[in-house]
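User: quick one, fold this
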Amino acid sequence: MLEIKNGRFTAQVDPAGAQIVSLQDGGRELLWTGDPAYWHEHAPVLFPIVGALRDGRVKIKGQWFEMARHGFAKRMGFAVDGQTGSAVSLTLRADGETKKQYPFDFALTVAYILNEDGYSTQFTVENTGKEPLPFAIGGHPGFNLPMEEGARFEDYTIQFEKDEDQVCPTVHMDTGLLDYERLGFALKGREIPLRHSLFYGDALVFRHLNSRRVRLVNKSTGRGVEMYFGSEFPMLGIWSAQNDGPYVCLEPWTGCATLTTEGDELTEKFNMLAIEPGTKYSFCFTVRVL
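Assistant:
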């Protein structure tokens, strides 16, 4: 594990998957602990897809490739590029193993920076090949709930900075595909009171929100976290385990799982990005501790 710290926070980052696995504030653990009884991960990096593919495979340049949900980056070893007291940067480059699933040349750099009131995650995707690079990317950090002694999961609420009028798609539980023709949870306003049953049908998936900030907060005490995600993330997932997991994930995404109404060509997937050879894009989201 790689450790970074500043005057307030101490974080640990695992080079396997470039995943932040711990964020402590004065000894209080804020990130999900990875209890396998609920969910064994903490904050996986989602690349080069977000969500599930139909039948776990995708067509690229006329050939079929198999790829697990959320892509392969979270299962790969990253090289450490640099580390200071309060920041660390890690990179995954295309190799023979990645090309068995995704036949492109790329470099994915993940950086974590501790701030005075939280931390930032920055993804940089570089096209090191000679053809356009199609991809989606996303974050998936989970936060412990309750965050303070004596509180309950239901004491917390999800608050958006602006009024919203959204209806989430249904997630097909057997395939993970998104169905926008069968609509599910509806958000009208700025707030979602938390209850475990919200996630019995998998994630709540939002797109093109008015808000760029979302809070996971105890209404009585004001304690919690706030996430800022820039316009480069047009989608947001909110998720917890279906077996009443004691955590909630706030997930900024550029893309999503395959839609039930679309085909299997990678470049034609909903919200898929593409960057030209020799160029790079950066994506950043920030978590502030309240």
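User: anything notable?
Assistant: Residues 96-99 form the longest helix (4 residues).
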